[in-house]
Design a protein that fits this description.
It is built from four helices and seven strands. It is an alpha/beta fold and 174 residues long. The chain has two domains: 38 residues, no CATH class; 122 residues, no CATH class. The protein starts with 7 loop residues before the first helix and ends with a strand.
Amino acid sequence: MMEVLEDRERWREAFRRGWLAHFEATGEFDWSLYKRPTNTQSPAGPAIDLAGAQLVLISTAGGYLPGEQDRFDAADPLGDYSIRRFPASTGLDRISFAHGHYDHSAVELDAEVLLPLRLLEEMRQEGRIGRISDSVISLMGYQPDVIRVLDEAVPAVVSAVKEQRADAALLVPS
């Protein structure tokens, strides 16, 4: 099986000695010190016929249901690696977004840009998607520690996808 992140320990050390060390010493975000992970191979799997598949929507916009769920900790300078789930049938007007690391102007006009639930429903009605999973999986996309993404966020997302028995996922990044 292919590793999701090649040379994990090398990335961890570069992160600790570079961006994280600078942040801890100064409290400043110097993104020129941040080394993005790179792989020589891309993870891939078999093709899926979406017309017969159950699709789950995963969004990194930090969507949550106020009054029912804790908001994401958007103020944490090291990110929030937890997930929230809410019914795909939830009205977009009931969803709030706790994520301060993207321009919210488009999502304030139409949350569909980050949670395309109406579009997916149209695609289902047209027979282009077999079924939409009952729940949307939401997380906050600002997660600078890739190791924490792999160890905390990814297993939680994978567990939620498996629980819903989804065949495919649409990841909408913010």
